[in-house]
Amino acid sequence: MVEPATDTIASTKLVPLLKDELDIVIPTIRNLDFLEMWRPFFEPYHLIIVQDGDPSKIIKVPDGFDYELYNRNDINRILGPKASCISFKDSACRCFGYMVSKKKYIFTIDDDCFVAKDPSGKAINALEQHIKNILSPSTPFFFNTLYDPYREGADFVRGYPFSLREGAPTAVSHGLWLNIPDYDAPTQLVKPLERNTRYVDAVLTIPKGTLFPMCGMNLCFDRDLIGPAMYFGLMGDGQPIGRYDDMWAGWCTKVICDHLGLGVKTGLPYIYHSKASNPFVNLKKEYKGIFWQEEIIPFFQAATLPKDCTSVQKCYIELSKQVKEKLGKVDPYFDKLADAMVTWIEAWDELNPAGAPAKVSNGKA
Amino acid sequence: MVEPATDTIASTKLVPLLKDELDIVIPTIRNLDFLEMWRPFFEPYHLIIVQDGDPSKIIKVPDGFDYELYNRNDINRILGPKASCISFKDSACRCFGYMVSKKKYIFTIDDDCFVAKDPSGKAINALEQHIKNILSPSTPFFFNTLYDPYREGADFVRGYPFSLREGAPTAVSHGLWLNIPDYDAPTQLVKPLERNTRYVDAVLTIPKGTLFPMCGMNLCFDRDLIGPAMYFGLMGDGQPIGRYDDMWAGWCTKVICDHLGLGVKTGLPYIYHSKASNPFVNLKKEYKGIFWQEEIIPFFQAATLPKDCTSVQKCYIELSKQVKEKLGKVDPYFDKLADAMVTWIEAWDELNPAGAPAKVSNGKA
Fold first, then answer.
1. Is residue B219 scored above 60 in pLDDT?
2. Which residues are marked as site: Required for activity (chains A, B) (predicted)?
């Protein structure tokens, strides 16, 4: 419906994109000096800091940032017995931030990620690119060979069905990393000196039916569309694996996005990943995951959800049942994980009661 | 098995890659002056020129190129009544060249495609990049977020199953175009001035189960692996549509590659596409295709092939039956096309009898 303008002042873009509709979630165990570099891009936004490890430690946040901080004591206090679903001593704890946010969009970033430069030497505003990705549709049902057709200077190519050109709503924008690539421990050990120097100037939709390894280092998503699927699992303290938190969230999210007709994009923006984690420590965390994933991935590739799963919560509960039934045989860990998936949804719904939709900006800050 | 070197001289790379195992197929109606620009890259290879239109016209080929040329009279003489499956007055005739080749690999290019430059200004040897693509595996079963994992400086990322890291044989390498993008007539009409200036430095595998719009302008494939599926259909003279030749081949090829566990790559190399074809003429050729494709694509998305289809020919004959059964209802054209698909396979098998494998270089030119 076309209507005349009624408020010409509010339409002038004076505020950063989605300023009141997006939270930045950062899991950390140290002072957040890395925010200095991000100041021009992040300062207008609200931060949710999830402090991992010793809750008595004081985390310093540079002046001028608007933030709330949660440590383990806070998590236990807020969730009570349901806090068991939030990992401890692992960056998987970040998903607590997704749960307590009341915004429509989440951007999450690791504290060893710095601002990258594009090939012209310009600092990349990663958040701005994520917002572009998430606000424009995805194309999960047919591949466009010129990549994102909604980008300036691009379009759908010959042979692309016109009925599919409206695309699907974008639920996830997965960004990449220059410098230290996101390799597993065996690859780190074999290629200690490999650095990612290739800037690929593309954003693309991961097709429906295709799984991908989702990395949580530089990730944006629409909390309203997919939030309850972004559970980072049970990792770290007391658990048999680590470094599969984001992978788990990615597999579950992708299966549910495919079922609900939502899109997942990958590619731009890049951040600069400053420091490789210790490959020996990583191997210890990963080794069970490395063989379990050989069964987990076929499981997710074959997973289908019934038609009456019309909400993310319903999909996720259904998926938890399938995890218990099919992956419980692989290891008792998956029984525990399936239970935690249910607890996560219960906690999510408690903190996000129906009828309390995410805050949407009305254009007046 | 590791064995000691026996011929150290032959191992020195003195000849261009796949020199005796690859034919370049060019459909044309004009003198091939465009080859001058390609001379440093194409001259070592054998060309198969398929002359379209008036067979009495003399096509000039620049000196120094090794070629064979077929006009309509040749096609009729060689194929007899089966020549009906080869389109006339349409670049779809190029697939005759695939059939008469005796090499393992085909590269096909349009005569309005010039050498493009990479961002550093260096001339791109498109053929060399296609050969790299086709000689390294594909990854159709799981998406790698850092694109081609076999490329220098890249690898599989964390969370990529180790059992899938050997990849699948690559059957097709689909290259892209700078300058004039491959748009359909409606998009050409709406965006007459749009030029593709974005050089995306990536090669990626199109995942299993995902269709894509395959353009025949800049295309390489393994004839042994997928050749009989590369039929460009019935277009041009006497047919109700045009400009869907490569699309048709792409849909059939992708469904068969998915069934046989073969990979299809897209991305690099770029060529420089010099001249936009007339959008009004294109609209006339395309308009039936534009609504037919709304039924064709769901048909191919749903198509499955039975397990006993173990060769490309068997797959293709099975697909022709499904085309007749399912698309015959859309228009009688598809009945005719389904018959032509069968004729194509008969002609292919006649010119390529079993037991006469494609010539493979023994390393001695």
1. yes
2. 158, 165
